Give the backbone structure.
Amino acid sequence: MPSDFRAASATAPPPAVAPPTMGLMTRLFLVPLLIVVMVVGAMIIMSLVARLAGPAPSIDQAIANLKNDSGGQRTAGWLVGPGAKQRYIDAKALTDQMKSGMSEAQRIKLADDLLDILEHHTRPDEGNVEYFILLALGRVWQLDPQQPPMNSPQALDSRQKVVAKLVDNARAKELYPKTSAQLANLSPPELSDYKSQEMSRRKAAILALAFWPGRAEVRSAFPALIQLTKDDTEDLDVRMAAATALGPIAGPQDQDVIDALSWTMNNTTKDELIWDAAASLAQLNQSVAKDTMLMLLDRHWLASKEIDDPESTQRRLLSEEEQQRIIINAMEAAAKLQLPEIHLRIQDIAAHDPSPRVRQAAQDVLSGHPVWSDVH
């Protein structure tokens, strides 16, 4: 939850519970929270191992360490060993540097270093490190309202290279292809893990682009994201990520994006994809999303709604926590529609929802404060 993210950032030690599985979290209706969940999942793990390893490295030392190919191997989806632990800590150091703000020269250097790490110093058997580096790469050029836009020729070139790398990773179904013989030698759990790592990388690359509102270079990613959103042969999670990313980075003038999201919303039977497409349309102030957003702001409707459970073959009702998550993120997106019906519904939620967290989020939306906040 957005509030969970704020609490996790301010509280030490982090929660002692295991983070939700990537499949479960990604299939839930999470508008900007999809991005936050992936970051927070990695941050919780890194925070836990950092407590065992002493002071964090400097930014230069972190980069040097990440370029060292001696990271640990994975077992059953988890990184083990001191080398793997150190790579988590190094990735955390990069995020801490971004929180404190960076100059244009620092951003250019960090982007180059991260591009080099992705190209030459990461492996698919390193679990969360790769997708965390992709998300960090997306954040390097996130606009900071406290800083100038940074539009030197060198900065423009850097941003173009970063977007191109993210788009390549978003499109590539098998960045690390295995031969038929190699695939045949994998056990069922290993094959599932291999596919899961590829999917995590693609989703991270897509969602990293959602950190780029206001950056003109991100427009070059629109064709790829539109194609992924509309392609019904693509994995559902990839389509959801693409639909989610388009809302924050496009504008009401981008008719090709609006057409793609509208087509997707009306030509899929997958509820979660419909919800994500509608949320992005709402962020683009498209009234065609109104009916769907009103349903997502209706407790009675949500309480009776069944969804596909990615962890099984069964459909199930939404849990209370999932309903809260949906309503909070739906309010943030729906508020952009600026329609009286939406405003009245959020007012009712602020006054009567049984969850104090949801009521507070509604009050934040009504007062113009963002429900969730990302760190710079």
Summary: The chain is about 60% helix and 5% strand. The CA atoms of residues 121 and 341 lie 52 Å apart. The longest helix spans residues 188-208.
